[in-house]
Each structure stands twice: as C-alpha cells, then as structure tokens.
Write the structure tokens for this entry.
Amino acid sequence: MLKQNLNYWEISLKNPEPIIDEYYTFNKLIVQNQNLIQKVERLRELITTYCVLLEIDRQALGKVLDEIYMIALHKNIQYTEFIAFWKTLDLSYSSFRQLPERDRKLMLHKILEEYCEKRKKLYDELGYSNIVVQALYDSGVSRKKGKAGIEKITNLILQKLKGSQIFRTIDELKDQILGYFLPDQNKVLFDKFIANYNIEYRFSQTYQGKLPDVVLKAKDHFFIIEAKHINETGGAQDKQIAELISFINQREPFQNIHYVAFLDGLYFNYFINPPQGSKVYQQKEDIENCLKRNQNNFFVNTAGFVNLLQDLGEGRL
C-alpha cells in the first residue's frame, strides 16, 4: 500500500530543496558561436550605416534595412543590445517573428529610428562587448524552467520506475502497466484518457482549459501531476501556490485517480518553519487541510515525489 498522503508531505518537509538544482542549471555558451558573433558584429555595422543614412539619404535605406531584417531572423540574435532595446518601446521579439514580412520591416524601421536617436550614440561612447550577448542569454534562461521541470519529473519516473514507457495512444495506456504521457504534447490522448476513465478534471474549467503537466500510470492507478518551480516570494508566486492547492482540491469518485501537486525550488523550503500568521503559514495550513480532505491526492517536493515513486516501484499499490 502507498503511505498516506500526509506522510509524503512530511517527507518533503524533512528534505528541503537544494540551493542549486542540476535540472535548472543552464551553462550553454553562445558567445563561442562564431557564426552568431559574426552576425552580431555585422548587425552593429549595419545599424551604424542605417543611422547615418537616416540623416543624409533616407532613400538609400532599403538595402540596409533588408540585410538588417535578415540578420534579425537569425537564431539567438535576440540576445543583443539592439533587440533588448525593444522592450523599452513595449515591443517584443516574439511578436515581431509572428508578423508577416511587410509588417516586420515596417516595425523594424520604426524601432531603428528610435534606437538611432536614443541609444546608438550612447553605446558608441561606452563601447561594445560580445559579453553582452552571453549575459542577455543567461538572463533569459528562466524561460526554460518550465520545460526543465517536466524533464526532471519524467527523468525521475524513468529512473525509479524501471520499464516505464511513453504512451502515445489510448490502447497503449490501457494495455501497459507502467508509463506516462505529457498532455500538452498529446492533448488527443488526454481527452481520450479522461473520457475513457470518466474523469471530471474540474481544474480545466477554472483555469481556462489548462492541461496538467504529466499523467503517470502505475498498474491500475493514475497520477495526474501539476508541477511548479518557484524560488521567490511575491504576488505572482502566491497565485501559483493557490493554483497548486486548487489542483489537489479536486476529487474524483474513483480511488485509483490521484492528483499530485509537485513543487520544487527554494520557495518550498519556506513551508518547513513559516512564521505564524504569515502568508506562507496560511498556505501551509491550506495545503494540509486540503490533503486531509482529499486523501487520494498528494503535495510533494523532490524528495517526497522520489519516495512516492519508490513505493510505486516496490509494488505497494
């Protein structure tokens, strides 16, 4: 038998999250990519030319704009001081990529006008360094954390539940004993899953159709997992914790359906001994009350999740 859900919560509280987690450590060095650096340096030269032509010959801007446009589509070019400037205009590189070509070039021209006026001279005086490219890339790695969290969960499943496979069809899900799938990558399978097993999944109605991160099967039990990686406190983080609490507040009429809230990152450690009356103290009480009401569900950090997987691997269902 699995342990009671509060046991896994206690295991989690006794085993805090590490300060540095290898799953969320990114050390890719793009500044050593010579092709990228050549594009960055060429972009700076072209911008200098463009700024000069804005003052003396606007009719000659076309060819220069075309080349800047092509470089602006290059992989990782967004990690430059020029693209970083766009945020000061309330514009984003991702929105630029989604526009049709004509609108992209018009947007690029308007941005260049602003950049020439507000940044070019300043940067010329301060000097350029390709360290900027690496620093901007490093500052943007937080966008990779969601994917890293799911990779962490799936890796732990494969490590602790030997013989697990990735399900691709509803037949595989029904026929195999151990495995998982990612609803965001296979919504058709998730829809068939909840239909075939008469699962209500009310969370979707409250959170604009949001899918869970992972669905794990062990024998005839299913664990529907929602994961968060949180390191800091604040209003946005409070909303994410509330979302996890709402997730495990779901209740299905079947004992083999479990909702699992997985929280890693340093925020979890605040639950270990929160000051009485604090926001975290209230969150901890809400989690524990929710677990008591819904004994089929779980709230775990890394250690608690590993312990849960180990129990599943030992056939304790």
Remarks:
- DSSP finds 14 helices and six strands in the chain.
- The chain has a mean pLDDT of 94.
- Residues 5-24+144-313 form one domain.
- The CA atoms of residues 223 and 258 lie 5 Å apart.
